[in-house]
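Intended use. Records like the one below are meant for learning the mapping from a protein sequence to its folded structure. Do not use them to infer anything beyond what is encoded.
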Amino acid sequence: MANEKNRPVIGKEYNRLTVLNRVEIEGRDWRSNRIRYACQCTCGTELLVKGGRLLSGHVKSCGCLQKEIQRRGNVQHGQSGTKEFAAWRGMIRRCYDKRCRDYPGYGGRGIKVCLRWRKSFSNFLADVGLAPSPKYELERNNNDGNYEPDNVRWATHKEQCRNRRSSRRVAVDGVTKTVTEWAEKTGVNRSIISRRLDQGWDAAVAISVPANATRYGNQNARRNW
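Structure written out for the chain above:
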């Protein structure tokens, strides 16, 4: 029998189990006498556990922990190395991880992932389906919109290029060009034009005002240039 120093402590937590009491179970002979510890799991279930199994960490819960691990494993089984899983993980990182280099263009702009997808890869996969081929990437129809069922699809690199913020079309005085084309025509950097449009600038002003003009006055003043 273990000495006092090697026995679980009443009131102490061992993983998900809290020791409530020491219980001696009597059998028909001395070999059947066993010491158990009445424990309560964080889920509320009470159970008897051998002291050695409790101290060694062999028993960590009433069984609920293993069920959770299995449930997560079933959701992600065979998917962790796939394009779909990488797309889901990348989508969340871009929107919520400030250390991600792409965060400024996503989470930094207020782009979010719908709660249904943020909580579950299986929900995401059920809604968007498998990528048609390795050539496809996750794409938002509206680049100013969130990651949600009505705004996401699988697209080829060529389709993505057409839908980039720098490729969106802007009409000025009856002439429609992409942001990139306006940048080439006016000499104003395309990222500056895109940012101005995001901020609500008038399109004609956004494509024509010199870059250093952003330091002068308020938006109304800029529009009077």
